[in-house]
Amino acid sequence: MSIRRKEQTSNSAIKNLIKTLGIEEKLLIVEIQNLWRELMGPSIFEHTTRMFIDNEILYIQIDSAVIRNELNFNQEKLYNEINKAIEQNSFIKIKFI
Predict the structure, then answer these.
(1) Rounded to 5 degrees, what angle do the CA atoms 32, 40, 43 make?
(2) Do 57 and 95 touch, CB atoms closer than 8 A?
(3) Closest of 52, 45, 58 to residue 91, by C-alpha
(4) Tens-digit pLDDT profile for the chain (97 aa)?
(5) What is the 3-state secondary structure (H, E, C) of the chain?
(6) Distance of CA 73 to the CA centre of its chain
């Protein structure tokens, strides 16, 4: 039982440190990027140039108009898959730019 209590304390300390350093969003973006690579595969991932969250919107910059257009058709499905996988509601919408 004391091991579990120490583990919870360590987890709590790490979460507090991440929050204090202000890197929560950066870590979330890295997690989303890794997931994006798995979901989309290398060909679409190579056309992804930037990801960021602003005003609760996940922006994903794509350097191909054709791919961006196709992704816009699947926007809701991708939103649901990403939110389900990261188990957070850190953004309310995906926007491809």
Answers:
(1) 120
(2) yes
(3) 58
(4) 555 656 667 777 777 777 777 778 888 899 999 999 999 999 999 999 999 999 989 999 999 999 999 999 999 999 999 988 887 777 889 999 9
(5) CHHHHHHHHHHHHHHHHHHHHCCHHHHHHHHHHHHHHHHHHHHHHCCEEEEEEECCEEEEEECCHHHHHHHHHCHHHHHHHHHHHHCCCCCCEEEEC
(6) 19
What is the rounded distance in angstroms from the CA atom of residue 89 to the CA atom of residue 12?
A: 20
CB 51 within 8 A of CB 33: yes
Structure tokens at 66: 């054709």
Provide the token pair at 91: 């953004």
